[in-house]
Amino acid sequence: MAITRRQFITRTGLAAAGSFLGPSLFRNPWVQQVLAQTIGDRYFIVVFLDGGNDGLNTVTPIANGTSGNLRAAYEAARNTGTGGLQLSASELAATAIGNDPNSNTPLALHPGLIRLKHLYDLGKVAVIQGCGYPDYSLSHDVSRHSWQSAIPGGAGVGWVGRYLAANYTGTDIPGVNITNEIAGEFIQSATSVLAIRRVGNFKFPYDEYDDADIPAKSATFSALCSNATATAQPTLQYVGNAGNATLTATSSYPPLSRQYQNDRAPFNQQYSDLNTGFARDLREVAKIIYGVTRGVPNVNARFFELRNGGYDTHSDQGAGAADGQHYNLHHEVGEALNVFYQDCVDMGVANKVCIVTWSEFSRRIEQNDNGTDHGSQGPMFVIGGAVQGGVYGNHPNINSDALNDDGNTMYSQAAGDPYRSTDFRDVYGTLLKNWLNMPQGTILSSVLTPEAGNPASYWTAPNFDLGFI
To answer: What sign has the CA pseudo-torsion 241, 30, 164, 151?
Structure first.
């Protein structure tokens, strides 16, 4: 099914020209950066758990550690019985991971993440605890923009977008978002990014009723874009380059679907057997990666974004039972990531793929009647063949006397604080430096800007070597 012309403009990033392009942008240092190395022969995938994932029931204390009483605090906050969200030690036994570095508390993943636990056991999953930012917002939109832009309270250009703008031009298509519009992390105005729900259906919006004039329309659109590229006006140059690159993509990308289905039928079927939207979306990423590995002309995407929704669990969240809402969400993600990783192993690219997951916030420590309200800090996962698996960062302090007036955990950067938070920008910075090959000085000057203020309360001392990659 062909998309409309308006959808075509939105999904290919051309609409960003009107909002973000301007003469001053092209004088910006991060646009002018010319770097010797970029991602190289690697792939980077962002997974958004949309709605605010309950971090406490994602990475959960099994028992009290040698210091602290995280399990006791957890049991005080989460109920048992009808509507209770408490995960028992027996339910968590099969998904036990490492210990909290601070308190030596034994931890486990939610039972729904059993397939992710299998990857953890292979050393391919880094569990990063206590991720957040200062003065966090309980608004979905504000917090999403904060994570996507890497500027608390900010919006506009995305953190991945700033990297892309520093390394690619309007003639490139380095990224694909498996969605209907450009993801916030990828927004920028220097290169092209595609938003494709299904690569096999990606088409230029020609009129369906008469195929005879398609060559003429294609030639006309290409000529318009070439004329724009030939001007001296940067905005028109960008639109022209992006337009021609996208027109080429509409003929290069659709055959990837059939090629993958024919060449990789067993894995194609495994995704189908899962019968979930997230599995189908990951299969689209696999199709493109397979195309790149096969040297398909004009298919060079290395950056991807996809999401799984439904994490706004104010009610009917469930605990460890397989019919619970939270269980089903985690099961969907864990099963699909496991198939995708095995697919990458079979393609010979597992060590070249890195996945990072995030959610706009966690959930409140104390449950409501049968769900959880908006919270603050939560875990992130980094997954891939080159990842140094294990538990990183400190579990947040969930004792009732340590929570703020909203009943949420407190952000801290205080030196020596046993519950010191992991600022999400340190996770991004570690990925930018150690996976995307961006020099730390360039990261600090063009992508992630340290804050001013009290160093115990704000992100003033970046750490881009967290060790997970």
So the answer is: negative
